[in-house]
Amino acid sequence: MSLEPTAPASAHLRNVDKFYGDFQALKNVTLDIPPGKVTCLIGPSGSGKSTLLRCINFLEEYDSGEVRIDDRLIGYETPGGRRMSGRRLREMRRDIGMVFQQFNLWPHMTALQNVAEGLERVRGLKRAEATERAREALAKVGLADKEANHPSRLSGGQQQRVAIARAIAMQPRIMLFDEPTSALDPELVGEVLAVMKQLAAEGMTMVVVTHEMGFAAHVADRVVFMERGELVAAGAPREIFQNPADQRLASFLQGYRERNSLDF
Amino acid sequence: MFSFQTIVENLPTLLGAARYTLLISVLGCAQGLILGALLCAAALSKRTALRRAAGLYVSFFRGVPLLIQLLVAYYLLPVVGINVPPLAAAVLTVGLCAAAYLSEVLRGSINAIPKGQAEAALAIGMTPRDLWVRVLLPQALKIGLPAIVNELILLVKASSLVTVVGIVEITRMSQSIASSTYRYLEIYLAAAFLYLAINLVIAAAGRLLERRLTV
Ligand SMILES: Nc1ncnc2c1ncn2[C@@H]1O[C@H](COP(=O)(O)OP(=O)(O)OP(=O)(O)O)[C@@H](O)[C@H]1O
Ligand SMILES: [Mg+2]
């Protein structure tokens, strides 16, 4: 087996600020992502969940504070210092998988090529080896029989599973998910969540921005609630969902329950 | 009296001249695409100096008539000590000019690609070069294909301007045959059909490619 599990990484945010012009999207956020655990980020639209997530792989450049993968600072050479070189940033990103709401599969490549691309170009594997490992990753998300399909010939759920395969094939040590099921028809959500649960069970470090409160309640080890760029509450799912201490969290959950008339 | 005989007799000569039309168009287009892709990358770069340089380049080569560019190249290059055959100067100039137009086509196409495409590449640690070659350009070529085919057809027609530097391509050759045979209509019609044939082939190739790229 070449898709061996890797040692899960932790991530640490310290006093992170992020501005879009004058607008402050992240306000002094401090958060520890423990290794091998699932951390879910919840909160209203525009609260900065995606921004926070994207700071972890520096797709979004934070303005001050520190973001570390294990103990390595990402994005800057020193806290508040110069930008780190492209080469070092790429090296760090290889270990951080990301799954997007819109899948972002490359439409001109087949499912197999989408998964093998990074293995060949970034990990530097030989074509045959990359293909073999890509097949393994596709098999793992249950899509071994779809390897020749282009994304346009896959359902949304299948596309997202290919995107997950693309990420896990790189053998990341931490994975970021930005609302991975929000673009899916309801009946396709389950297959994607199932793959994510499997990853969680294998001990992958996962940070998941989600509106799937059921997933957060049942799979997360820790749930973090954000509002207006601030980290408002964090705790075990039980604490967050059953006895929300914070008023804003309580009303967010209330609103969610009313919209979905579900209990969890 | 319309004389097919004249056309048949002079067709080999015209076809011979068409070689230059094709040569200049094909080489100019290849150069234009490669240089145009580089220019486009510069125009979209984070570095201000690169963006400025690309902007200047495009303004110049789009803003000055190709005819003048050819004349400048023809008379300027020897002055600065570069002695290249007229054909090379012509190909070079046509390519430089095509690059300006093609870079703008590509820039528009790349802007039409959803941002997430590049983000997915950057997130796995792809280099900027691979991002361009593997992810952005293939998609941009597809999006821009109809416009690129347009440019190529314009290029074939514009290649007639190279006569000013003494290259005898289809247009120049037909003029000279016409004035020696006094069969203007026949010869110019033949030239028209030659251009048409070349451009129909390009258009058909474009459509074929478009179908193949659609998945
Ligand atoms: N590129 C940008 N330029 C300007 N403002 C931005 C940009 N990206 C995000 N914002 C703003 O920053 C805030 C946080 O955005 P973010 O996308 O992180 O929210 P979110 O919690 O992920 O919301 P959603 O649940 O809708 O995805 C929002 O108010 C948004 O309008
Ligand atoms: Mg978001």
Automatic annotation (TrEMBL), chain A:
Transport found in the keyword field: yes
Domain ABC transporter: start-end pairs: 11-253
PANTHER family: AMINO ACID IMPORT ATP-BINDING PROTEIN, PHOSPHONATES IMPORT ATP-BINDING PROTEIN PHNC
Organism: Rhodovulum kholense
N-terminal signal peptide: none
Protein known as: Amino acid ABC transporter ATP-binding protein (PAAT family)
Keywords recorded for this protein, A-Z: ATP-binding, Nucleotide-binding, Transport
GO molecular function, a single term: ATP binding
Keyword flag ATP-binding: yes
Family: Belongs to the ABC transporter superfamily.
TrEMBL record, chain B:
PROSITE patterns per UniProt: ABC_TM1
SUPFAM superfamilies (UniProt xref): MetI-like (SSF161098)
A GO BP entry: amino acid transport
Membrane topology: Multi-pass membrane protein
Residue ranges constituting the ABC transmembrane type-1 domain according to the UniProt record: 18-206
One term under GO cellular component: ATP-binding cassette (ABC) transporter complex
Annotated transmembrane regions: 20-44, 56-77, 83-102, 187-209
Keyword hit for Cell membrane: yes
GO molecular function, one term: transmembrane transporter activity
Localization: Cell inner membrane; Cell membrane
Name the UniProt record assigns to this protein: Amino acid ABC transporter membrane protein 1 (PAAT family)
Organism expressing this protein natively: Rhodovulum kholense
